[in-house]
User: What shape does this take?
Amino acid sequence: MTRCSCAWTPRCAPRFAVLLALLAGAPAQAHTIVGDRVFPATLTIDDPGVNDELALPAFSYLTGSNFDGTPGPISYSLGWEYSKTLTPSLAFSLGSAFNWQRRPSAQGWSNLETQLKYVFWEDAKSESIIAGALSEDWASTGSPQSASLPSDPFTTLTAKLYAGKGFGDASLDWARPFAVTGEVDYAAPTRAANGDGSLNPSALTYGATLQYSLLYRNSHVEEVPEAFRKLIPAFEAYFTTPVANVAPTAPGNFPAHTTTGVFGPSLYYVGAYFEVGVMAQIPVNRASGSHVGALAVLDFFLDDIFPDTLGKPLFAAAAGAHY
Assistant: This one.
């Protein structure tokens, strides 16, 4: 699932670098099953599969840091996203987010984002999967533009690549509950410059998760206490680097080419019909934020709730059942 319109928009970078880390990591993802492996709906990057799901709400909070050391903006986001499978390997999604900020005060809706995502390859035995996506952040579909929380008047196109690998085929029992996922995106605005002469840079975003599935351990290695059987703790990281069409650094601002991002521990509860996830997002540098923030999501598995109607692919029968 995409990070919807709470995703990074290039024009935000020179204004408030903290929003880059906050909004790029805003939660709205899906869960994926490959063989016996459940890849949960992680909070910083998307999982590598396609599903019928509804993320509502998706919450993000982070406090920024100004270059001169004064208190930065305090930013919040509440997002939503709906994902619909067209075939077992292809899904369409759309979503947005309501953002509000203090120091200075501002609020408004992000642009609407749509995405097509396709699973190129998966192997149940090795618990491996590779997918790609194209997303579009539609110009001026959010709230009217403001100096602090703009709804960009240009469209941003993003190409994405995903991968996931579970280690259920490992020879050592202690290693089998582990899994990793990764994502690399390239975002390019359709307008290089604005009417005031400011530039809209292109950016590379990338991240990864390391997961330890107690759900998997209970089912395939050894029994764990009942209270922990549906939990998946993880460690996540997500970064953004402007790479093209970057304006010169303005006096009193962080360098325009600065990489920003967050990392931190997360925890997921995977139920039969929904998932709850929480994460502490720690800024990687002062340009990314000044304090530990938070991410959270409630994700409904429509393919499990309505397997024969709303949760069924439009053009093909669902491939396999969830557990």
The longest helix spans residues 17-24.
